[in-house]
Amino acid sequence: MISDTQLYSLAIFLGSASMLLIVLYHYLEVNARDQTPLSQERKADSIPAAPTGAAVAGGKGRS
């Protein structure tokens, strides 16, 4: 049977290992280089659209 102290140590170890793996994954994902060039359709999706008149006016119509 596992004691409380062993269970506590195991939980701390597994939690620390999982956090380390999460940080490592995000570090590698952010710094990864894209291998395939973007298609024209995907390039167009990444350009933000110009604001519309309703968004500029605060979302309220003028009367």
TrEMBL record:
Where is the stretch described as Disordered?
A: 38-63
Where does this polypeptide localize?
Answer: Endoplasmic reticulum membrane
Q: Main localisation, per the record?
A: endoplasmic reticulum
Cellular component GO terms held in the UniProt record:
oligosaccharyltransferase complex
Q: Does the keyword Transmembrane helix apply?
A: yes
List membrane-spanning regions.
7-28
- Which keywords are on file for this protein? Endoplasmic reticulum, Membrane, Signal-anchor, Transmembrane, Transmembrane helix
Task: Output the GO biological process annotations, alphabetical, semicolon-separated.
Answer: protein N-linked glycosylation via asparagine
UniProt membrane topology term: Single-pass type III membrane protein
> Mind telling me which Pfam families this protein's record contains?
Ost4
Family annotation (InterPro entries): Oligosaccaryltransferase, OST4, Ost4p_sf
Family of this protein: Belongs to the OST4 family.
List the protein's name.
Dolichyl-diphosphooligosaccharide--protein glycosyltransferase subunit 4
- Species source reads Coniosporium apollinis (strain CBS 100218) (Rock-inhabiting black yeast)
